Amino acid sequence: DTKQRIATNSTDNSTPATDTFVVEPFQEIRDDVWRQGRGEWDFSQGHLAQTLIDEPRDCYLEAVLIPPANFTFRLRLKITGGTQRMVGVIFNRSEDGGRGEAVMLSANEERMGLRFFFEYGDERHFHDAHHRELPIKLGEEFVLRVDVHKGLVNIYVNDLLQQAYKVTSDPGTLRLLAI
Predict the structure, then answer these.
(1) Residue 129: strand, helix, or coil
(2) Alpha-carbon Rg of the chain, whole angstroms?
(3) Please, are residues 73 and 20 in contact by the beta-carbon 8 Å criterion?
């Protein structure tokens, strides 16, 4: 049952592969790994928290290095509040911000679940055809996994495949987003 599977936290604590792009324990700010963008970020005790309230724009951390064309991104997260109550990742983002693909978990009561948007220039286009209604509740822990491999994107929530689609952009930067 999907709802039961979503409510169950992932137990996979396997060791990362030797070709892992980055493993981030979030013990302290690592300038060699992240560029801090908007937001107030607190790194402590193995957790990262974005604490700026009522920011009308995205709060983000951007990876210093560009991930390879094929990668897996795994994020254990808990949404505790915010303006739109969405947390996730934007990848294949061009250096000038002219394009990118975002995968977000949303605890927003108006559109709860797995959300997607694409950036083209200054415009953000939510892709409602990819949306999956899921019971994403404030204060609950989830694992979001994005696998990009040979032109395909597979999205998992708590190890359950939720969506698959073809990559729409070239490799680029990666950002953690809190909206």
Answers:
(1) helix
(2) 15
(3) no
Nearest to 178 by CA among 75, 86, 110, 104: 86
Prediction pTM value: 0.84
Alpha helices for the chain (secondary structure H): 2-7
Beta strand segments in the chain, E: 34-36, 41-44, 47-50, 59-63, 71-78, 86-93, 99-106, 113-120, 123-126, 141-149, 152-157, 160-166, 173-178
Q: Which sign, positive or negative, has the C-alpha torsion 161, 125, 50, 60?
A: positive
In angstroms, rounded to a whole number, what is the distance separating the alpha carbons of residues 51 and 147? 28
Instruction: State the CB neighbour count (10 A cutoff) for residue 80.
Output: 14
Torsion, Cα 48 54 56 59, to 10 degrees, reads -10
Please state the separation of Cα 80 from the chain's center in Å: 15
Residue spans of the chain under pLDDT 70: 1-21
**Dihedral sign from CA coordinates of 82, 141, 134, 128:** positive
